[in-house]
């Protein structure tokens, strides 16, 4: 019998038990970082830039990744928050450790961008908690921008246009 590695993306609300469960799994890493312990790599989780847990709220909708061969539930998620009429923020991109390095972050990012496009956003922004993931963002068409919104000065932020240019998404 072969085990399927197909990943299914589903949209879930901020208070869906799948989302709250995933963010709870991300929380210990954020808390260890806040305590001064080195945690590598540090995922985008339900934590602010200072490592304090920030619960998801009604302004965030999530794309959740599930795999049929994952016996212990969903494998990752990415949140989408409206920050202006035409701009949304991608936040809390998280993939559980056993499933990292398998392209799931890339699928989640594509899925959350598609959700933003379907909801009428022209631009998505995000803040990188770890510069080692900057290559993923750049490969998906993101460009570096100045910190935005509630981000502290040293944050590394990115932006991507979702407008179709030359027959392909930008």
For this structure, the CATH topology is Aminopeptidase
Query: SS-based structural class?
Result: alpha+beta
Strand order of the largest sheet: 1-2-3-4-5-7-6
Helix share bin: 10-25%
Which spans have pLDDT < 50 for at least 5 consecutive residues? 30-53
What value does the average pLDDT take? 80
Overall CATH architecture: 3-Layer(aba) Sandwich
In the CATH hierarchy, what is the superfamily?
Answer: Gcn5-related N-acetyltransferase (GNAT)
Rounded to an integer in angstroms, the radius of gyration calculated over CA atoms is 16 Å
SS strand fraction? 25-35%
CATH class assignment: Alpha Beta
The succession of helices and strands, N to C, reads EHEEEHEHEEEE
Number of strands: 9
Count of discrete domains: 1
The largest sheet is: 7 strands, mixed
Count of DSSP H/I helices: 3
């Amino acid at each position: 019998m072969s085990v399927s590695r197909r990943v299914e993306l589903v949209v879930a609300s901020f208070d869906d038990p799948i989302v709250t469960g995933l963010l709870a799994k991300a929380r210990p890493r954020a808390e260890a970082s806040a305590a001064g312990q080195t945690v590598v790599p540090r995922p985008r989780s339900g934590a602010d830039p200072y490592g304090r847990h920030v619960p998801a709220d009604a302004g965030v909708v999530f794309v959740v990744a599930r795999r049929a061969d994952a016996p212990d539930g969903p494998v990752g998620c990415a949140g989408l928050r409206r920050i202006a009429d035409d701009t949304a923020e991608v936040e809390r991109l998280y993939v559980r450790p056993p499933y990292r390095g398998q392209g799931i972050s890339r699928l989640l990012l594509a899925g959350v961008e598609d959700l933003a496009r379907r909801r009428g956003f022209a631009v998505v922004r995000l803040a990188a908690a770890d510069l080692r993931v900057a290559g993923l963002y750049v490969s998906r068409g993101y460009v570096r921008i100045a910190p935005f919104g509630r981000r502290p000065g040293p944050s590394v932020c990115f932006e991507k246009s979702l407008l179709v240019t030359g027959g392909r998404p930008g």
